[in-house]
Every structure is written in C-alpha cells, then in structure tokens.
Amino acid sequence: MLKEFQEFIAKGNVMDLAVGVIIGGAFGLIVSSLVGDIIMPIIGMAGSADFSNYFLPLSDAVTATSLEEAKKQGPVFAYGNFITVVINFLILAWIIFLMVKGVNTMRKRLEKQKAAEPAGPPPADVALLTEIRDLLAKK
C-alpha cells in the first residue's frame, strides 16, 4: 500500500494540483487584501469606511453600534461581511476570467502560427515511397 501511495503522489497531476491549491490560497489572500484594504475603503467613503460593521439588529435588546458588541447583545443580520465576501468572489472570478481569456488568446495565436508555418520536406521514408509510387504509375 505504501508503494502505491508513493506512485500516486509521484504522478504529475497530483503535484500540479498541490501547487495549484497552494498558489490559489496565496492568491485568495491577495484578493482579500485588495478588497479589504483598497476597494472597500473607497466604496465605504459613501458611508462608513468599514463595511464589516454593517448589520441589522434582529432583537430590541441590540443597541450597540459595532458588530462585535451587537453580537454579544443578541442576534444580528451581519450583511456587511457578506457584501465583502461577494465583492471578493466577483473580483476573483473576473481575474480568473481574464487569465483564461488570455490563455485562450495565446493558444489561438500559437495554432495560427503552426498552421502558417510551412510543413517542410516530408520524412525520407515518405519521400522514398512517393518516388516509388510515381515510378510505378509511369509504367
């Protein structure tokens, strides 16, 4: 069983997946920082600079103005954090879309270049068979 596990781990696809997950996690942190530190303060300038404190109290007992204190007092509908997560997702989805679009454009260019390149002379065995065919056709 240990040998099978080693073979499984040594496969290229598993290693590619591991690298993708690690890079994806780091990329997620970058997007979170972009949204939390740059985009949300700009959006929040219309009201409060901190979206995470946007909430609706679900009980009359909740009188606090910060989300953390309000949660201690009773149930709250904390929609500000949800908005931040949705914006994170939309930015991440947009960036992934642009990356996939770029890769697809690059692939199309490479395919056009391959199609435009001359095929070059045929291999020696194919040339020899073609010559034999032509000689036989003359008889």
Task: Tell me what the structure shows.
This protein has 139 residues and is mainly α. It has five helices and two strands. It has helices spanning 2-10, 12-44, 67-73, 79-116, 124-138, and strands at residues 56-57, 76-77. It has a two-stranded antiparallel ribbon with strand order 1-2. It is elongated.
Largest sheet: 2 strands, antiparallel
Give unreliable regions as ranges: none
Average pLDDT value?
82
The helix content is: over 70%
Distance between the termini: 66 Å
SSE pattern, N- to C-terminal: HHEHEHH
Number of strands: 2
Give the amount of beta strand, in percent. Answer: under 5%
SSE-based structural type: mainly alpha
Instruction: Going across the biggest sheet, name each strand in turn.
Output: 1-2
Number of helices: 5
Radius of gyration, CA atoms, in whole angstroms: 30 Å
Global shape:
elongated
